[in-house]
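Extended Data, panel c. Modelled sequence:
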Amino acid sequence: GYAMQLAIRKGYTISIISKPNPPTAPNRDVCASESRQLSVNPTVGGLTYRWFLTQADAIANTNIQVTNANFTPSNGQAPVGQRRYFYVTGSGANGCTSDPTEVTLT
């Protein structure tokens, strides 16, 4: 018998999905009695926000402090009168994550 060989073509669609823009979160200068809350403002619908203590953690998406548009560092994380840096990312439903935004709390 003879075997027939047929050329088979498969079509693939590759979609390039852009990562979201880095979140906007203003720096804060607070007095001892004031709230230390840091906030993404404005928030973008459909994004999940994650806060980190270091840029390396934010890039690696590890050691997430909170998954929320707002984050209130503890006294240990942000001692009164000392400048501390925190990082926030935004992730879309497609799994793409923004570059981290650095937020300063003094």
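The first helix runs from residue 55 to 60. This feature is highlighted in the accompanying rendering.
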